[in-house]
Amino acid sequence: MRPLRTGQRKHHGVSLGFLALSLTTACCLQSQGVSLYIPQSTINATVKEDILLSVEYSCHGVPTIEWKYTSNWGVQKIVEWKPGAQANISQSHKDRVGTFDNGSIQLFSVGVRDSGYYVVTVTEHLGSSQFGTIVLHVSENTAEEIELQDVEC
């Protein structure tokens, strides 16, 4: 066997180093997955208000977004969609929910029964996912508000 010249070793070392760096970079980009930000994790509302369950996400490609509602009565799927496509809204929330491409949803004319935990899951096409929870408290109008409404009528 002939020994390699110094120039060739250096050349192969640079090539292998570049290849290793490229593979490492590619793995890091893929492993970043989904990030999810929830600016307000608790929302207090009164009956008949429209409320926004606000989230922001970042990921590679177009994700699937799913919202579920959890209360003392169990877990119920509200909606699932891919941004830019039509949402699959459950029968229980037809005409009561609006979706946004950033992953947020709006609930229209909430009632006390809407109080509970709202869990959003963002899943990218490679399977990486992230979830977050928003707690919603819906209360009846306060006695003060009822008195003001009576005076105005």
Automatic annotation (TrEMBL):
Signal peptide start and end residues: 1-26
**Does the record carry Transmembrane helix as a key word?**
yes
Cellular component (GO) terms are:
axon; dendrite; plasma membrane
Give the record's membrane topology. Single-pass type I membrane protein
- Extract the InterPro entries matched here: CD2/SLAM_rcpt, Ig-like_dom_sf, Ig-like_fold, Ig_sub, NK_rcpt_2B4_Ig_dom
Whether Magnesium counts among this entry's keywords is no
| Cell location | Cell membrane; Cell projection, Axon; Cell projection, Dendrite
Keywords in alphabetical order: Cell membrane, Cell projection, Developmental protein, Glycoprotein, Membrane, Signal, Transmembrane, Transmembrane helix
Q: Which GO terms describe its biological process?
A: filopodium assembly; positive regulation of excitatory synapse assembly
Q: Please give the PROSITE patterns that the UniProt record associates with this protein.
A: PROKAR_LIPOPROTEIN
Where in the numbering of this chain does the Immunoglobulin domain appear?
A: 40-139
Q: Which Pfam families has this protein been placed in?
A: Receptor_2B4 (PF11465)
Q: Tell me the subunit arrangement.
A: Can homooligomerize through cis interactions within the same cell membrane.
Q: What does this protein do?
A: Cell adhesion-like membrane protein of the central nervous system (CNS) which modulates both the position and complexity of central neurons by altering their membrane morphology and dynamics. Involved in the formation of neuronal dendrites and protrusions including dendritic filopodia. In synaptogenesis, regulates synapse formation by altering dendritic spine morphology and actin distribution. Promotes formation of unstable neuronal spines such as thin and branched types. Regulates neuronal morphogenesis and migration during cortical development in the brain.
Name this polypeptide is given = V-set and transmembrane domain-containing protein 5
Species annotation: Phyllostomus discolor (pale spear-nosed bat)
